[in-house]
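Run log, item B.
One chain of 354 residues. Sequence copied directly from the ordering sheet:
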Amino acid sequence: MNQSSHEILIVDDDQNNRFLLTSLLEKDGYITATAKNGEDALEVLKTYKPDLILLDIKMPLMDGHETAVEIKNDPEFFDTPILFISSMNDSKNIMQAFEDGAVDFISKPFRKPEVLARVKTHLELKDLRTKSEEHAKEMEHFAYMAAHDLKSPARVISNLVRQMEEGSELDSEELTYRIGRSSKKLGSLIDSLLQLSDGRKKNFLRKGVDVVEVLAEVEEEFSDTLKSKNGSISSDIDGMVYSESTALKILLKNLISNSIKYANADEPLKIKVTLVEDGDNFKLTVKDNGLGFKAETGKDPFQAFSRFHGLHIEGHGLGLAICKRIMDCHKGSIKIESGLNVGTSVSMEFPNHF
């Protein structure tokens, strides 16, 4: 857990307690703010959004129970964990604390290791809830987009079959061509979805892989398409990466496929693949001179179904998402640099050890 990224509000009318808790938590890497009573805390929360609140019970003006209820009535802080820390540790106050929405109760005089352990636990639980919610939203979006993209070619095939049954005016050769094209598109999307799923969960049995050899296989598969784009692939490869041949091939195929899709029609397509040792990593880069794109603020290029061009270009927006999942499994990294009409460069860093 990156404790320095977590902020904690300490609410206690005793100055010595505020000082002790502040010193303890900041020494352990947390960021803190303090309030001397409930009213003060509510004022602080107008501009401060802590990840966790430590709250005393016995305070002037507004006690801890009232304060907790007020905080939990604010939708913005409904999921913010509150830990009561008080000498009023009779069963009535403890039960009331949980009814007020607290997640835990620490008795005074408190023990430093106990405070740190409970704070850490509840922040970790909060982070897990947040990640689960984000994952649920991502999966909901993913399911919608996948269904949308699968529906289109499936509908085309269904309509063409219906036309055949009703005696279409199209000749059999044209019908066969159209059904075949839609079937190929459907199969391509299913293959991409399977690759994306595999990239999420696979533990790669990494070994040294010859990038030159894998690149040659990929280049052979794209040879006809490259000719149609007057394109070429050059390379400057020094060393190998720790991966699997299949995983590396998927990476290169997706990136080179993107370069081909977004080639600039006004000039020959040039793709350059380089591999260099960079500190503790091997850096593999695929760079092209294609159309490129302008990054949109807040838009993740590695999000499944992301598209960055207004052009109607065949594709599902899954290639970069697949690459990101695979690099995550390698415990490596991937980044993309691009600009309109200046091409795109995708760099992947593989740890140079098992």
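Observations after the first pass:
- The CA atoms of residues 141 and 169 lie 39 Å apart.
- The mean pLDDT is 83.
Flagged for discussion on Thursday.
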